Amino acid sequence: MKRFSVVALLTVLLAGVVVAQDVGSGVGNVAAVPAVVAVPVAAPVELKVDTGDTAWVLVSTALVMLMTIPGLALFYGGLVRKKNVLSVLMQCFFLMCVISLQWVLFGYTLSFGPDINGYIGNLDWAFLKNVGMTPNGDYAATVPHQVFMIFQMMFAVITPGLIIGAFAERMKFSAFVVFMILWSTIVYDPVCHWVWGVGGFIRKMGALDFAGGTVVHINAGVAALVAALVLGRRLGHPHKMSPPHNLPFAVIGAALLWFGWYGFNAGSALSAGGLAGNAFVVTHVASAVAGLAWAVMDMVFSRRMTVLGLISGAVAGLVAITPAAGFVTVGGAIGIGLGAGAICYMFVTFVKEKLGYDDALDAFGVHCVGGIWGALATGLWATTTVNSAGVNGLFYGNAAQFVIQLKAVAITIAYSAVVSFVLLKVVDLLIGLRATEQSERIGLDLTDHRETGYTMLD
User: For the chain, what is the domain count?
Assistant: First the structure.
């Protein structure tokens, strides 16, 4: 029954490839904004493919792909115990395959397709029908519609991947497959449409999210906390847990995440110009400041700086600057980085211990908490001097924008929490979520995949 459920879901996805042969890929519609932001463009823009913009978005797509495999895979893989390293690598790599297919078949059209009442895209672009080589003016006036589609695909892939950090070492692979396909379709795609899709109600509300603070980090981070609570603690947690089995892996993964994040944020400008340059610079500054802030907090409270703390802080800074990258100055990035390092440190070090939940790799403490801070901080430091298509925040005389950001955060948290909980319970009822106690003791590498990450020689 368990294997059948997984195979059945994959079969449905794969069947779409055959259907796509008949449907065709057509030619895209046309019109655009310099970035995926919530503010409508005042005047029509000429629709013409620009080779420089296209090259930059293609490079950015590759950079964001790199963030999932090998970046996230190595970062998370190094932090678990050695008996579970392959299970994490497998989960990240599998998501790259299965969510890419889901996106092509129906994920993209649900997220960005023609709007239905502000809540979801229709099926006009299913199987990439009408997603061709000419620009679509609703999203990017100077790059082919297909290029915009595959750039957004990489966001759809990495977002569920972030959730892995919460339930690492204890969810069955079969349950993982079913849950991730359902979550991407029922949680990620609608939220993506609300915030970034033309007609989406959060976008129309005026919320700013340049590259995924709400869509990616808060959305996945809330689901991560719910998953950790539903599955319960790992065996032995917190008294008999081992430290990360390979910190060098985690450092390499964090470095690759930082490197790829330039494409994540600067690529979201969808053009090779000043806005991309600003996003690139503030992304780097915020991450550097957050890493330092976390390291200083380590020194204050633990009397020594740690490698794990430094890389965790850098990632927290990357998370926090994501929604703000196309709207804030370097000064704003410094403030956002300081807040990310300090707030996420306090949450991971003290709040999690006080509450007692087992978020294995701090997916909630870094991504959701950092994402909330970043989204709200966008409402503080946003300025039209950086992006004329945006709006000013509280520190530039517009307190209303902070309130709008707060509403967008609250809506995302509520929806992701409730629906993620329901999906987890449904999957648990159908095939069971958690690995057996014996599987946890042996390790998921062997019990799920019959492989080991390391061969011990005599």
Answer: 1
- How many CB atoms lie under 10 A from the CB of residue 392? 18
* H-run or E-run covering 298: helix 274-302
> What sign results for the dihedral spanned by CA atoms 332, 333, 338, 342?
positive
**Residue 32 per-residue DSSP state:** B
CA 197 to chain CA centroid, Å, is: 17
At 310-348, the pLDDT tens digits run 999 999 999 999 999 999 999 999 999 999 999 999 999
Q: What is the DSSP string of 348-406?
A: IIIIHHHH----TT-HIIIIIHHHHHHHHHHHHH--TTT-TTS---GGGT-HHHHHHHH
Give kind and range of the element (H or E) at residue 242.
none
Domain region containing 169: 2-447
Residue 90 counted as domain residue: yes
| Dihedral class, residue 356 (left if φ above 0, else alpha if ψ from -120 to 50, else beta) | left
Q: How many residues does the chain have?
A: 458
User: From start to end of 34-133, where are the E strands?
Assistant: 115-116, 120-121
Is residue 75 situated within a structural domain? Answer: yes
Q: What CATH number does residue 437 fall under?
A: 1.10.3430.10
Q: Based on the number of CB atoms within 10 Å of its own CB, is 437 exposed (0-12), middle (13-18) or buried (19 or more)? A: exposed
- The C-alpha atoms of residue 437 and residue 428 are separated, in whole angstroms, by 16
* pLDDT tens sequence across 363-385: 999 999 999 999 999 999 999 99
Distance CA 86, CA 138 (A): 41
- Counting residues of the chain whose pLDDT is more than 90, the rounded percentage is 87
| Structure tokens given for 322 | 């994501």
CA 127 to mean position of chain CA atoms: 23
Residue 455 lies in a domain: no
How far is C-alpha 384 from the geometric centre of its chain's CA atoms? 26
Residue 458: inside a domain: no
